[in-house]
Write a structure and sequence with these properties.
By secondary structure, the protein is of the alpha+beta class. Helices cover 19% and strands 44% of the residues. The protein is built from two helices and 13 strands. The strands form four sheets. A four-stranded antiparallel beta sheet has the order 1-10-11-12. β7 and β8 form a beta hairpin. The chain is elongated and about 50 Å long. The chain starts with a helix and ends in a 5-residue tail after the last strand.
Length: 151
């Protein structure tokens, strides 16, 4: 019985040690602008954000083409774009576009306020979205990714 207990404890410690090492090697959430935007960013259909993002394969400078529906990330609050999980901003906002400068990625739209008057609104997406191992993400939602953009 003593041999079994020592073996079980040793095996448990070995598994714990491997788990600890793997958790340190796991993907980390990274800044969108720092790890995706420099290769170009596109907004399609007023709400699909597309970019090539660096993945965790740093030995080969790995990148993935990723896209996410910003309706998972942004909402319209009385005419103002805000970071909001499942906000579905494109149901009310129109004429959306993106502008990338230095460390900001601005999403700009025309959104109705509480009186139904359209107002210009903007949100720095770098405060809302992130890169996770080559996928664009926001809140608990990860976008799709592939090795290359479709032709």
């Amino acid at each position: 019985m003593r041999f079994f207990t020592r073996t079980f404890v040793s095996a448990t410690l070995a598994v714990f040690a491997l788990t600890s090492v793997r958790s340190e090697e796991a993907a980390e959430i990274q800044s969108f602008v720092d790890y995706c935007a420099y290769r170009g960013v596109n907004l399609t259909g007023d709400h699909w954000l597309e970019a090539s993002c660096r993945n965790d394969m740093t030995a080969i400078f790995g990148y993935n083409y990723s896209w996410i529906d910003l309706n998972y990330c942004v909402g319209n609050n009385g005419g103002q774009l805000i970071a909001y999980e499942n906000g579905i901003y494109s149901a009310s906002c129109t004429n959306c576009g993106i502008d990338f400068e230095m460390k900001t990625l601005m999403l700009s739209c025309r959104c109705p306020d509480l009186d139904e008057r359209e107002a210009a609104s903007a949100l720095d997406l770098n405060t809302t979205i992130y890169n996770y191992n080559g996928s664009i993400g926001c809140f608990n939602q990860l976008g799709n990714k592939t090795w290359r953009r479709a032709p």
